[in-house]
Amino acid sequence: MKRLIALLRQRCPVCLCGQVFTTLFGMQTHCPVCGVKFERETGYFLNSMFIGYAAGFLILVPTAVLLAWMDVSILLFSLIIIAETALLTPLIFRYARLIWMHADQVLDPRQRER
User: Fold this and answer.
1) Considering the entire predicted model, what is its pTM?
2) Which pLDDT band, with edges at 50, 70 and 90, does 114 fall under?
3) Residue 90's closest CA among 24, 35, 17, 39?
4) Using the 8-state DSSP alphabet, how is residue 73 labeled?
5) Which of 37, 72, 89, 99 could form a disulfide with 76 if both were Cys (CB 3.0 to 4.6 A apart)?
6) Is residue 66 packed enough to be buried (19+ CB in 10 Å), middle (13-18) or exposed (0-12)?
7) Cβ 30 vs Cβ 112: under 8 Å
8) pLDDT in tens, 11-51
9) Contact at 8 Å (CB) between 38 and 15?
10) Do residues 16 and 3 touch, judged by C-beta distance below 8 A?
């Protein structure tokens, strides 16, 4: 339960306290509380892209199906999907990385560095 709350609050996967993000898309390199380096190796966050793709698909498909069912014009359909994608991109980006970091911590635990 603690891990789920930390994930939702966008906290460090090791200590569950430190803030991971500094700006909308900017991440800290190390946890400000425990000092663990977030990016274990070069390309570490490539796996989070798969999580982001899946999340985007699961979020956008119901909207697309609903719009197709409502038989809206192609222009309106495109505008709504583009707007939804633009609005949700920061959340999907953040949570895809956080889900990956927390899953990786559960599968291959690290210790605090401080």
Assistant:
1) 0.88
2) low
3) 24
4) -
5) 72
6) exposed
7) no
8) 999 999 999 999 999 999 999 999 999 998 999 999 999 99
9) no
10) yes
